[in-house]
């Protein structure tokens, strides 16, 4: 069920939950691009703002200027995965041994040290393995990467011996308990947050109008947004096919994937002029601002930050009932739950096209629900966990 939000809740969330704590966060990358990377950046800045001493051990760390964290870079390649993963596993473990301070939290199964908190954003034991592009080499690389991730996850669950396992949604928590029953009692949910200030309707109206003109979207036309990479899993094909059945709609695609394959699909369906390829964008709020709906017929998600951002932007949501989305969308009240069937998606798009009031009411309700998932709440939940673990260690 969607959460409600009040001004008093906001004030409570913004207060530090406990006294100052030393925390070490381990991750591959932290920054503004990528859902997990953005979540980590918000967690770090929130902890620092609350007066905690934060150490970061990562390959890259991009935070706003003046962010007072102690950053220790792990010099490791970002790709190919078959080299990058074991390299970080070893180099990162050595860095943790040397630089760890206070409560230690690992973002995924990426080091071989004992940790206090293991944060699970994606459980590889059950998550699908999809190549970014078509072709035998890409598929073979994806299969190898999937095998390594699953093996590494099983190994680290044993070696890390986490005192708490935090999961980004109730769905992920259920998966972890099922796959690692011996650790079930340590599993909890700390939902990701969403920036409800940056992702807000009306904040970039003039820029959005200019961007629609630049893309060649006709005045008065309806535009749906599709945001994310791993396009096969996230359902770009059914989204394009649905738009092909919906003459009133165009589609804006933001993210990285096999553009040639999906451009060919759009051309074969006669909608090449109505599908706009935006590439990887840092100005995602602008993408939502210029759109009238959001489509994500994904087969698997763990939290789906982009869906929460679209909801905060007051868009009409059409999303599959995957983890995270199930905790946000009440079908028909603040969005539509969809399958990967293009005809079903097209029918929902048709209802939105014929009823502007429905688009507005769904978007307003989605915005209200997203307000219950603030960054402040996410940071406060982590503070309470760290304080509890620190107290037990005394």
What does this structure look like?
The chain is of the alpha/beta class and 394 residues long. It folds into 2 domains: 7-193 and 374-388, Glycogen Phosphorylase B (Rossmann fold, 3-Layer(aba) Sandwich), CATH 3.40.50; 205-370, Rossmann fold (3-Layer(aba) Sandwich), CATH 3.40.50.2000. It is 44% helix and 16% strand. The chain contains 14 helices and 13 strands. It has helices at 7-14, 35-49, 81-99, 136-160, 170-179, 205-215, 231-234, 236-244, 259-268, 284-289, 305-312, 342-354, 356-370, 375-393, and strands at 22-30, 53-61, 70-73, 103-107, 117-120, 164-167, 187-189, 222-227, 249-254, 275-279, 293-296, 316-319, 336-337. Strands 3-2-1-4-5-6-7 form a 7-stranded parallel beta sheet, sandwiched between helices. Strands 10-9-8-11-12-13 form a 6-stranded parallel beta sheet, with helices on both faces. Helix 2 (35-49) packs across helix 14. The radius of gyration is 21 Å and the shape is globular. It starts with 6 loop residues before the first helix and ends with a helix. The model is unreliable at 1-17 (pLDDT under 50).
What is the gist of this entry?
With 394 residues, this protein is of the alpha/beta class. The protein contains 14 helices and 13 strands.
């Amino acid at each position: 069920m969607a959460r409600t939000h009040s001004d008093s809740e906001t004030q409570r969330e913004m207060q530090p939950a406990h006294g100052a704590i030393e925390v070490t966060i381990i991750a591959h990358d932290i920054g503004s691009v990528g859902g997990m990377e953005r979540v980590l950046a918000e967690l770090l800045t929130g902890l620092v703002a609350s007066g905690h001493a934060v150490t970061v051990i990562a390959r890259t760390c991009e935070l706003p200027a003046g962010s007072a964290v102690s950053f220790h870079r792990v010099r490791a390649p970002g790709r190919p995965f078959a080299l990058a993963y074991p390299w970080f596993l070893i180099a990162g473990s050595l860095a943790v041994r040397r630089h760890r301070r206070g409560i230690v939290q690992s973002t995924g199964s990426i080091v071989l040290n004992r940790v206090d908190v293991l944060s699970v954003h994606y459980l590889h034991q059950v998550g699908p393995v999809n190549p970014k592009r078509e072709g035998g080499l890409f598929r073979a690389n994806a299969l190898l990467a999937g095998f390594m991730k699953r093996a590494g996850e099983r190994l680290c669950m044993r070696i890390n011996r986490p005192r708490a396992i935090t999961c980004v949604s109730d769905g992920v928590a259920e998966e972890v308990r099922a796959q690692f029953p011996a650790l079930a009692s340590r599993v909890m949910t700390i939902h990701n947050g969403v920036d409800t200030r940056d992702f807000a309707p009306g904040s970039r109206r003039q820029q959005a109008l200019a961007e629609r003109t630049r893309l060649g979207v006709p005045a008065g036309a309806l535009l749906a947004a599709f945001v994310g990479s791993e396009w096969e899993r996230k359902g770009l094909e059914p989204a394009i096919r649905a738009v092909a059945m919906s003459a009133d709609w165009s589609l804006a695609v933001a993210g990285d994937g096999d553009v040639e394959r999906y451009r060919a699909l759009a051309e074969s369906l006669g909608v090449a002029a109505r599908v706009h390829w935006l590439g990887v964008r840092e100005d995602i709020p602008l993408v939502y601002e210029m759109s009238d709906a959001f489509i994500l017929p994904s087969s698997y998600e763990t939290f789906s930050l982009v869906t929460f951002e679209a909801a905060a932007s007051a868009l009409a949501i059409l999303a599959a009932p995957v983890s995270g989305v199930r905790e946000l969308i009440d079908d028909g009240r603040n969005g539509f739950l969809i399958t990967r069937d293009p005809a079903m998606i097209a029918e929902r798009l048709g209802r939105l096209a014929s009823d502007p009031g429905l688009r507005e009411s769904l978007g307003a309700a989605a915005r209200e629900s997203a307000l219950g998932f603030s960054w402040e709440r996410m940071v406060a939940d982590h503070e309470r966990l760290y304080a509890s673990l620190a107290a037990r260690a005394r």
